[in-house]
Amino acid sequence: ANSVVVAEKGADLVISATGTDGAGKAVSVKYTFPMKGGALSYTEGAPASGATVAIKRVSASTIDSTSSLNGKEVGSTHATVSADGKTLTRVVKGMGANGKAFTNTEVYERQ
Question: Which pTM does this prediction carry?
């Protein structure tokens, strides 16, 4: 099962995610999300060299991010938490390994 844990640390959020990729391989990532905006700071499972993620808090319940590789934008994420705080919806757009554009909608329910 895939899981995501979000914890507050001062003015930032620490995100930990574990699960499996499309090939069934275990994956794990942990990063600090600066709530005032800026680049993510990875402590585990960092992306390839040259990859960056810039974030912006749009509102109390919405965060947008842009992923780049060697200065070229390669994807974006629009994340929204429901009014009751129980559901996180992420719309992820990017380019697959096959060169085709994709849009994935992910919905996470608080356990």
Answer: 0.71
